[in-house]
Write the structure tokens for this entry.
Amino acid sequence: MSNLIENVELDGIDLRILALLQRDASTSNLDLAAAVHTSPATCLRRVKRLVDAGVIERRVAILSPQKLGAGLTVITEITLDKQGAEHLAAFETRAVADEAVQQCHRVSPGPDFILILQVADMPAWDALVNRLFTQDANVRNVKSFISVRRAKFETKVPLPSPVTS
């Protein structure tokens, strides 16, 4: 049996592959195949199908911001003065183009955007404020929260339970 998720059928093997790759995307195909009890060729075909279907968007290394000099995390709410589609799109385009913006969410209700930002220190934060917010006449309100401790950081997406017959 399988789950049908947005026109992509996922069976128990697919779900195990996804769970393992979410834990460590550098797992070799040989080790992945052994862990999910398939042949390496079958495993490789399944992973390719999951990539082609967009289930696996990309594989990345997760780096330590602190060890690379970008240890200040800021969560920021942005409210624009004008919320027309073109104004929202213009701010979003500028925000996602900035290297310090790790996540950009258009939200409702409340502020228009929530940004997760990673900068080196307070002077870098000040430069970002000037670059993204102060110079934009359409930014009405900025409310920022400085993270003093990251209690959890996870990239895993909850997977559906395998369907059993």
